Amino acid sequence: MHRAVFDRCMEIMSEKLHQDMCDLILPGKPVADVAPALIEKNVPQYLRYACRYWVDHLDKLSGDQREEVGLNDDGKVYAFLAEKLLFWLETMSLIQETPTMILILNRLQGLINSTRNHLLAALVYDAQRFLLRYRWIIERAPLQIYCSALIFSPMRSRVRSLFEGLIPSWITKNSNPIEAVTFSPHNNAILASTSCDGTLRIVTTQD
Fold it and tell me: Per its UniProt entry, which superkingdom is the organism in (predicted)?
């Protein structure tokens, strides 16, 4: 039973998860300001279950079964994380399950045979670091995953290398590293960033 449920959870998440699940558009939009009905509409109960419990069902399988269902470097778990990790983090933030994400990633790391599957183990480890480092902003404004969190991630980060293309196009790229970024306090429509060379950029986040 657990194998079938795990497989179905992976199918659901792979099909349904995408960037900006609730069409919030504004990256600084606090999750506290998002209408519960909007979240319920875009993150229905079956998707919530899949996001919350897929590792629970994976954990119930034997070691051989985990390998068979894709807990390895070229399996479905790695493929899912490499494509959908940030969308999963965003969705879990929307349903206020950020603390649970930490536990899920910790549990997943414990299931991986890191000797045989070092690529998967390294990706999960980097995902753990990413979440712990940017938890404060992720759980308050989910779309900041694609702005502040990715921007400030180390260039060598596996998460950044996989998802750098999701950084909004309106964020001007500069050869000098960005040191700080902030949104306007009233409507989150203006972003200001500073670089180590002293460059100050002020851009609008609305069309």
Answer: Eukaryota
Pairing label, strands 200-204, 190-195: antiparallel
Burial of 140 (0-12, 13-18, 19+ CB in 10 A): middle
Burial 59-90 (b: 16+ CB within 10 A, else e): eebeeeebeebbbbeebbbbebbeebbbbbbb
What CA–CA distance (Å, rounded) separates 99 from 9? 20
Coil, strand, or helix at residue 66?
A: helix
| Cβ-based neighbours of 60, under 8 Å, separated by 6 or more | 2
Which helix (H) or strand (E) segment holds residue 12: the answer is helix 2-16
d(CA 86, CA 70): 20
Above 60 in pLDDT, residue 111?
A: yes
**Other Cβ atoms closer than 10 A to 200:** 9
The model's pLDDT over 160-190, given as tens digits with 9 standing for 90+, comes to 999 999 988 776 455 555 556 565 555 554 4
175: which residues sit within 8 A by CB, 6+ positions away?
none
Residue 42 and residue 39: Cα distance in Å, rounded?
A: 5
The encoded tokens of residue 69 equal: 């269902």
DSSP per-residue letters across 94-153: HTT-HHHHHHHHHHHHHHS-TTT-HHHHHHHHHHHHHHHHHHHHHTT-GGGGGTHHHHHS
For 27, the enclosing helix (H) or strand (E) is none
Q: Are 13 and 80 in contact (CB under 8 A)?
A: yes
